[in-house]
Amino acid sequence: MDVTPDRTGTDAGGLAVDDDLDAGGRARVGRVEGAPEPVQPGFWMTVLGSFAAILAPLIGFLGGSASGAGYDQTGRRLAVWLMVGLVVGGLGVLCAFVGAVRWWRGAHR
């Protein structure tokens, strides 16, 4: 069954679609009752970047400790794991900053 609306205001099934079309003939999409409000652009990037910035160094230290760095005299494994955690955490800070800028600009337009 073809449900493409024609210009007469009904679709192929006989349902009235005048109110569902805008001036260009495209379907208008309304808000659904009870649906959550959409978030501003950059919100999720800020949240996820903040979590990465907080958790990555801790997970790096935990990974270094779990890899047996305490038994190594130089502690090189712990340093490598911690450095990787700090780099990932730094990328998280960068993502959080870029997300916050997008969020700020989206809210103030």
From TrEMBL:
Tree of life domain: Bacteria
Membrane-crossing residue ranges in chain numbering: 43-66, 78-104
UniProt entry keywords in alphabetical sequence: Membrane, Transmembrane, Transmembrane helix
Name the UniProt record assigns to this protein: Uncharacterized protein
